[in-house]
Structures are given as structure tokens and as C-alpha cells.
Amino acid sequence: MSTPTADNHTAFTEVPVIDIGALVSSDPDPAALAAVVDRIGAACRDVGFFYVANHGIDAADSARMFATAKEFFELPLAEKMKIRLGGSTNQFRGFVPLGGEVTAGKTDWHECLDLQPQWGRDAASAARVRAPRDGHPLDDPEQWPPALPEFRTVMTRAWDQLWSVSARIAAGMALSLGLAEGFFAQYEGAELSDLRLIHYPPSARPVTPHAPEGVSIDQTDLGFGAHVDYGFLAVLQQDGVGGLEVRNAEGEWIAAPHIPGTFLVNIGLMMQRWTNDRYQATWHRVQIPGDRDRYSIPFFFEPRFDAVVTPLPQCCDADNPPRYEPCEFGPYVVDLFAKAYDGV
User: Fold this and answer.
1) Neighbours of 335 (CB within 10 A)
2) How far is the first Cα of the chain from the last one, in angstroms, to the nearest whole number?
3) Composition of the chain by helix, strand, coil, percent to 5
4) How many CB atoms are located within 10 Å of the residue 241 CB?
5) All residues at 6 or more sequence positions from 340 whose CB lies less than 8 Å from its CB, including other chains
6) Which residues of the chain have pLDDT under 50?
7) What is the pLDDT of residue 139?
8) Where are the alpha helices (DSSP H) in 147-268?
9) Per-residue model confidence (pLDDT) at position 331
10) Domains parsed from the chain with CATH numbers
């Protein structure tokens, strides 16, 4: 995972909430849309995180997605391991058991499932990069749990909805940079986007039924270690247990709890690269929950495999020349995943 450059964020004390009703509307009031765009730009520049309200996804759909995710994590470990990431068919999608991910040398206290419905793959460009194991670097056909026949239907609907919301947020970001509304749409591609289900078991149990033998709470400090996201943007749904924190310019960790009716959005290193550090990815982490299970569901909205990310001319000038070389997203992320999941 790359490291951001010097932090241009402010010493914020809370994450802003932005009503994006005008952004998702088919016929927005121009003044209301302009106000939303200004707020998105300020949040990307000063914080790197923001909540979105009036996003258009019904609470009942979110509740069904969380209930279905819980059903998956309550399955016996042997059932979940049938779709384990890193298996004979699942290279970059599938189940990662407790203790299967490490951040900054520490074992993360969570288990997760990465999903991608296999849409929009460009086979010709994808074939240019091979995974470390046999098979295609993107297609993972056995990622759906056989014990839950309705699982795929629920998660595919969630993918559709989250893709649409993410695309509108990306449009707002484009407008905030003085670009055409559809600028980032030309780089969209579903093949590297990711719907991730995460379960953080209670810390009151030193070893849980979910844990592989030998993995205990004593081996980790955090549910998810401090990191910045590698991609474009993420849209997060979380439950009310809490634990997510984001770091401000003073190095203080600020709580980013669940706010009913909202999703939490953050930008990643590709957006930082595109904007030549005008918008910066923010460090964040998840504390280990107390005596309750914690669930969260981030959707990672990414460029397509062959998208080339280069600092925007609008973000460069004589005093601030381009700070990054062009980066082809697919090879970059496949190499990143191959290293991150080596031995999983």
C-alpha cells in the first residue's frame, strides 16, 4: 500500500454530512447542485471523508444486505472456506478468514468476503497481466456461498444500487474540480470494483469459533489497522457498534460513527494521484469492538482495468508541477493484491 505525501488536510474535529439530493436528482435545482458540489470539493480537500444523506437507497435494502451478510458470517467455517480467497478458483475475490489479513505487521481482527458480479471485464486488456496462480487475474467464478441460495440476488441488487450512487458522487467530484460532469465516467469499469462484507467478532472472546487455530486477540491491536485506500472512492455502510476513526492533520483520531440514513464516503490514492494531491486520501482505522459483533459493508468504486491515471492539468501549474507518473490501474492493483494476499 502506498503512502500519501504531506497532509494538506485540516485539523477537523468531525466528518461533514452532505445532503446529495440535488446530485442524485434527475432534475436538480442548479443552485442546490452547485452548493452540493462546493461542499464535496471542500470535504475532499480538507477531510478526505464525508457522509452523504438523501442518497436514494432505501433503508430496507440496506437492512436486508446487513441481514444477509450476517447469515453468511454465521455459517460454519467449513462452509465459508468453500469460497476462500486464494483457492484454486478464487484469486482476488472470496472469503478471508479471521487472521487472514495483516496491516503494518499486525493481524487484523476481522473476517471478510469480497464480491464482484463479473460485469464489464475487458478480457483483452486483462489478459496482459497474469495472476501469480493459474487463471485469469480478475474472474473468480466461485465466489457465491452455496449454502445461501438468495445471497447472490441480494448482493447483486446492492451492487447495482451502490454503483449508481458512487457514479453520481464521482460526477460531483468531477464538477468540484471544474471538469465535465461525466469526466470520470469514461474511466469506469466494474472488473476491479469490490463489494466487501466485513465482520469484527467481539474482543471479549480470546479465540472465537470463527478463528483458525492459533489466532487470538493478543496478536492484534486493531480490528483493521491504520491505512489509506489504494483506489478511487469508497462508499461505506456500517452498523451502530462504532469503532471507525479517521486521522486529522494534527494526528488526532476522530470518530466516524454510523449516522442513520447516511453512507460514509472516502477517497483513495488514485483520486489523490488524479488531483496531484489537491484531494488526499485520509488515514483511517477500526478499533476492536467490545462485547458485540460489528459489521460493515464498503463498496469500492474503481477505474476500469486499462484506465491510465495521470495528474489532471487543472490541478497542475508552474508552481505545482505533476507529482506522479501515469499509472495504469489494472496492473497496479493486481500486483498490489498479489502481494497483499500472498499465502492466503
Assistant:
1) 13
2) 17
3) 30, 20, 50
4) 18
5) 1, 101
6) 1-6, 120-136, 205-211, 217, 342-344
7) 52
8) 151-176
9) 84
10) 17-340 (2.60.120.330)
